[in-house]
Amino acid sequence: MKRFLAELSRIILGLTFVFSGFVKAIDPQGGAIKIGEYFTAFSWPKADSLSLSLSILLCCGEFILGALLLMGIYRRTAVRLIFAFMCVMTPLTLYLAIFNPVAECGCFGDAIMVSNWETFFKNVVLLAAATFLLKNARKPQMLFSANGRWLPAILAIGGIFVFTIANLVYLPMLDFRPFKVGKSLSELTQVPDGAPEDVYDYVFVYEKNGKKEEFDMENLPDETWTYVDRHERLIKKGYTPPVTDFLLLRDGEDVTSQIVNDDGVTLLLLSPTWEKARDEKMDNISEMYDYACAHGWNFYGVSASTSDEISAWRYNTGADYPMLFLDAVTVKTVTRGNPSLIILKDGVIRGKVSDAGFPNVGQAQAFFDRYLEGEIYRNTYWGRLSILIVWAAVFLFGVSRKIGFYVSSLSHSRKTDE
After folding, report:
1. Are 74 and 144 in the same domain?
2. Are strands 323-325 and 211-216 parallel, antiparallel or unpaired?
3. Which residue ranges traverse the bilayer (predicted)?
């Protein structure tokens, strides 16, 4: 029974940590944003510069510990680290559940939203499993021998680091946010014509003999009551677009509808703030801007920068394109790069590209043809997944070999009994 419970604990912990680390590694910048929220909630603003490093360390560390546990190698070290991790996270998530300083813990990134109380109860189960496994660390079986365990360990470690850095440099492999490639900005942000609107009713407050009561329009009291106040009450909720905080401003004027409903091609160069945007690809940006101007396309810089920051960016880079304002949180929701390019055609997002993928000089036509001609272009991600795929194959080979060993042992035992 102890061996069975130890194996069950190993599988539960291993799968949870591998999944949690993997979905965080898809969007390490999103993890950094969540860690920044923690620093803000606990009044540690100076630690915000560590957010990205901690995000990478967290997602890679979780995946590696889960992978080692699933494979049954370096068991005692992996179990001790997981137990220590759960001893920290369980009381922390209890605090989050009680006081709610952040709305959602971010334990599974943006892939699965889990409430703070759900996270705490999950961690209680994981802590119990880690405690039991800590006392019985040697009971689970190893999938690989002591001499052969180095290969899957290196594949797991190298694979998750390569995968994480690729998602950081070239934007997330999967987009869990509303602004996915193929989505219409108009449908995401605008209320369509004829959509149902909010329906309200008036509520009147009257007072009599020191007692206040509320009445609707059809049941007003007699003249012995004294009118006090009136307010609206929502009776029926109307249509609300999926995104309500996408507001583009140009010199203080709302131009959102003009941008998202524009026919033709529009290019948005986004950065939360130009002060922190990478300027190594200025020649690439100029190449795209010149190509857009030659084809009559709209090209805008979009950020939450102040006028001084915009002026400094123009001075340092020679930027001549018009600038729009968009809240920094919304910019980070739309895309993770700094800067990034959003390619729109008839208001539909046709592509999202980080500065690492900007076209070199002379390659703008091939670059834009890829995203604008024919069907919507879908990036492939075999490169960043390749090492993890090899690790998964080696892991499954170890599992199948162990199952084969058990089956042959059982068959031999039956023949011996006969």
Report:
1. yes
2. unpaired
3. 49-74, 81-100, 150-171, 381-399
Per-residue tokens: 343: 């390619």
Same domain? 265 vs 138: no
One domain, residues 280 and 366? yes
CATH, residue 285: 3.40.30.10
Q: Which two tokens stand for residue 37?
A: 């929220």
Q: What is the pLDDT of residue 44?
A: 85
Residue 212 CA to residue 78 CA, distance in Å, equals 64
**Which residue is it, tokens 């546990």?**
69
- Spatial neighbors of 131 by CB under 8 A, at least 6 apart, are 83
Total count of domains within the chain: 3
Half-sphere exposure of 70 (CA within 13 A, CB side): 24
Q: Contact, 180 vs 242, CB < 8 A?
A: no
**Residue closest to 154 by CA, chosen among 68, 58, 70, 54:** 68
Inside any domain, residue 381: no
Q: Is 33 part of any domain?
A: yes
Q: What is the pTM assigned to this prediction?
A: 0.88
Is 190 among the domain residues? no
- What range defines the domain where residue 225 resides? 199-236
The strand pairing partners of 192, in sequence order, are none
203 & 261 share domain: no
Same domain, 133 and 41: yes
**Could you read off the pLDDT of 91-109 as tens digits, one per residue?**
999 999 999 888 888 889 8
Q: Please tell me the predicted confidence (pLDDT) of residue 4.
A: 87
Residues in the chain where the model's pLDDT stays below 70: 405-406, 409-418
Reading the block at residue 145, the tokens are 């021998």
State which amino acid sits at residue 269. Answer: L
HSE, CB side, 13 Å, CA atoms: give it for residue 174.
Answer: 11
Report yes or no on 183 lying in a domain: no
**DSSP symbols for 171-234:** --SS--SS--TT-BHHHHHSPPTTPPPPEEEEEEEEEETTEEEEEEGGG---TTSEEEEEEEEE
Judged by DSSP in three states, 351 sits in strand
Backbone φ, ψ for residue 199 (5° rounding): -110, 125
Residue pair 179/47 in contact by the 8 Å Cβ criterion: no
Three-point CA angle 206, 208, 210, nearest 5°: 105
- Asked whether the CA dihedral 324, 329, 333, 337 is positive or negative, the reply is positive
